UniProtKB/TrEMBL annotation:
Database matches in Pfam families: Sulfotransfer_1
Source superkingdom: Eukaryota
UniProt cross-references to InterPro entries, sorted A to Z: P-loop_NTPase (IPR027417), Sulfotransferase_dom (IPR000863)
GO molecular function: sulfotransferase activity
Organism of this sequence: Populus trichocarpa
Organism classification: Eukaryota, Viridiplantae, Streptophyta, Embryophyta, Tracheophyta
Name the UniProt record assigns to this protein: Sulfotransferase
Amino acid sequence: MCSFEKLSNLEVNKNGKHRPDTSIAIQNSVYFRRGEIGDWANHLTPEMGARLDDIMEQKLKGSGLKLPR
């Protein structure tokens, strides 16, 4: 019931809007995107990717988890 396919194909998520009563209504469909490994490079600059890596390293510091580089 909560699979990506089920949720992204619900009518409300195809055509509904988040905060429709405001001037900044956002289509619900923007919340569903089938990501693919490495696809970030089609949407972010290398500098943006490096900045996200730095932020994640700061957040993970002390947890024992490391980002693959």
